[in-house]
């Protein structure tokens, strides 16, 4: 879809342990890192809010990852050092 001009989002996260359990029999809910889950949910929520609240539509040509991170940081006062 991105190749067709639809804006996409691919937030980065610490993936050092992603494949330790990924899609294996050991991939169970007790392996969930609650802090990472909460942070990822917050990133998605703030991104959705920022996009929904934008005064104009955003196209894939108009935004890059640095712009998105800067926008998200501006919506999370006191959290900018963590992103």
Short recap of the structure:
It is built from 3 helices and no strands.
What this model shows, in words?
The chain is mainly α and 83 residues long. The chain has a domain at 36-83. It is 42% helix and 0% strand. It contains 3 helices and no strands. The protein has helices at 18-21, 34-53, 65-75. Helix 2 packs across helix 3. The radius of gyration is 15 Å and the shape is elongated. The relative contact order is 0.14. The model has no long low-confidence stretch (mean pLDDT 76).
Shape: elongated
Number of helices: 3
Major β-sheet profile: none
Q: Helices and strands: which structural class?
A: mainly alpha
Keywords:
83 residues, mainly alpha, 3 helices, 0% strand, elongated
List the helices and strands and how they pair.
Blueprint: H1 18-21, H2 34-53, H3 65-75
């Amino acid at each position: 879809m991105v190749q067709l001009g639809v804006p996409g989002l691919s937030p980065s996260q610490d993936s050092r342990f992603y494949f330790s359990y990924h899609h294996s029999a050991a991939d169970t809910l007790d392996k969930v890192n609650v802090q990472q889950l909460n942070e990822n949910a917050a990133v998605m929520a703030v991104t959705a809010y920022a996009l929904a609240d934008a005064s104009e539509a955003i196209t894939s040509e108009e935004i890059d990852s640095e712009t998105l991170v800067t926008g998200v940081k501006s919506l999370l006062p006191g959290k900018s050092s963590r992103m």
